[in-house]
Amino acid sequence: MIEQFFSLVEQFDTIAIYRHINADCDALGSQFGMKTWIQEKYPHKKVYALGKSLGSSAKLFPAIDEVEDEELISSLAIVLDTPNSKRIDDERWKLAKYKIKIDHHVFVETFADLEFVEETAGATCEIVAKIFQQHNEQLPPVCARYLYSGIISDTLQFSIPTTSYQTMQVASYLLSFGIDIASVNREHFSRSYKEFQYEAYLQQHVTFQDGVAYIKVGEEDYKQFGLTLKEAKEKVYALGSVHEFEIWALFVENPENEQGEILYNGSLRSQRVTINDIANQYHGGGHRLACGVRGLTSQEVDQLIHDLQERIKSELTV
Length: 318
Ligand SMILES: [Mn+2]
Known about the structure:
This protein is α/β, with parallel strands linked by helices. The protein is built from 12 helices and 11 strands. The radius of gyration is 21 Å and the shape is elongated. The site of manganese (II) ion has 6 residues, from loops.
């Protein structure tokens, strides 16, 4: 299968690389890791990184390419970090003559001619790097750096259970091309002074009761730090890593609602107690220990917190 990947890249003169909407660091890291590797190895080929929907990590990567539809008709499409075709950013992947998918999400559907899906991989960048390693590819340092950055962001700096022997092995292969670890980490995990102040605000105003730490943040509260709703909601980790907090939750006011009442979107995290089934009952969902809810009134938030406290009581005091 790996041989097939390399012979396809060899065969096509035009290659377009796609990834999911709201691109995060693993999506962009794998996309630009792939692009810079092809460019270095085959300077005569036309390689495009496509997709306009970008998340906050886009500033750490080069600009997205422009290309005419006609050029894509004879192309090879490589779709990265995307389990279902609906989430591919830029519909023109369909124009390609041949399609490859490389992904680590839970399998949803087959949409490509050749698929590499490894659900246990810590990041799509890990799978891409593994493919390169198995083929003894010499990577340009910039390519190794992009792939490494996708791995550290999806595994939270090698700290969550998706980190495996393979993750470390592949990371060590990437390091052999010369990566300044300190600078990559700084680039991806440092925060601005405004964000730092907002995190301090959250820590100061959090309520902690019966195992649940939570805070409701109004629009004015996060706007004073110059943050958008999305940025304000991402900072749930500012409440994490506290022994006593079994569950921690950040609720941020969403001003874009027609009803005219104050509604909150929330991020919920749990150390060990399952919470996504509760989130499902409040217009939300996600992973077992990390999930979100949307459009809750202040009373619904209170009810949700009560349900979370009850869950801790029933599961942890037996
Ligand atoms: Mn990923």
